[in-house]
Specification:
The protein is α+β, with helices and mostly antiparallel strands and 272 residues long. It has three helices and 13 strands, in the order H-E-E-E-E-E-E-E-E-E-E-H-E-E-E-H. It has two domains: 45 residues, no CATH class; 223 residues, no CATH class. The longest helix is centred in the last third of the chain and has 20 residues. The radius of gyration is 20 Å and the shape is globular.
Length: 272
């Protein structure tokens, strides 16, 4: 097999892996609502978290840092004494190439209170205040039997569905944010005080928000797992929107191989 053919094969394999890898939770293994009676459709946490929600007046609007999803078709509640267990078909790996060492993201409808909530909802309050997004205790497991508690949690960054600050971004062809990319965990919510959404988006750097979980920091830092397939949340949780396996950042050599393959494919196409 010549070098051009090898590059072509490699890029096809790499692209196929990217297409077929599913970063979202796939199955609800167990759901006990506890003492809540509404927002109990557990299937809403499967698949890609929503990027739109119902507008408070009429129609729809984009999920933004100041407007979290709030419909019962978009978020799930867990009451006191309740729990949820979900599983992933593909392993959630503790990959050293994952940004900031974050391996898993959990999404809620936490949102920043805004200074202009009566009009455009684009200016984050100062001091910062968030509403919604309460989460119970989080544990992870490789086999669904042996569980390890997630500890040393950082901030829950509000969801943001598109690389735009507009409420109608979903309808204008705006580019979606990356729900598999974490926000820099060195940031605090106070870093967003008084910012416009456009300014806040620069801090998000393409991310769609979420709570980051590091599989190297479990059970008080005493346990590291190479991968997990199950996530459990126990206790009062008022607005769970979904989960995502963080996408690793390719090494330069991998990117070079992809570029080589694409170039080879282009040459083959021109030669026909």
């Amino acid at each position: 097999m010549n070098r051009m053919m090898l590059c072509s094969v490699c890029v096809v394999v790499l692209c196929a892996q990217a297409v077929w890898a599913d970063p979202w939770a796939d199955t609800v293994v167990l759901y006990n609502p506890g003492d809540v009676t509404n927002y109990t459709n557990s299937l809403v946490v499967l698949g890609e978290p929503t990027r739109t929600t119902a507008a408070f007046t009429e129609g729809s609007e984009s999920v933004r840092m100041t407007v979290g999803p709030w419909q019962d078709s978009e978020i799930l509640k867990i009451g006191n004494g309740g729990q949820l267990i979900v599983s992933f078909d593909s392993l959630v790996e503790n990959d050293p190439l994952n940004p900031f060492g974050i391996d898993l993201l959990v999404f809620t409808n936490a949102a920043f209170a805004s200074l202009d909530w009566m009009t455009e909802n684009k200016i984050i309050g100062d001091p910062v205040y968030t509403f919604g997004g309460a989460l119970g205790a989080i544990s992870v497991s490789q086999d669904g039997l042996n569980w390890h508690q997630v500890t040393s949690l950082g901030p829950i960054f509000p969801m943001h569905g598109y690389l735009s600050d507009e409420a109608d971004a979903y309808a204008t062809g705006a580019t979606p944010t990356d729900y598999t990319r974490p926000v820099d965990p060195s940031l605090s919510l106070n870093d967003f005080a008084g910012l416009s959404l456009a300014e806040a988006l620069s801090l998000y750097n393409g991310s769609g928000g979420g709570l980051g979980i590091d599989l190297s920091n479990l059970d008080g830092g005493t346990i590291t797992l190479s991968s997990i397939s199950f996530v459990k949340i126990e206790g009062y949780t008022n607005s769970l929107a979904g989960f995502a396996d963080v996408a690793a950042v390719p090494e330069p050599a991998t990117m070079a191989l992809v570029a080589c393959g694409l170039a080879a494919l282009a040459v083959r196409r021109r030669s026909r």
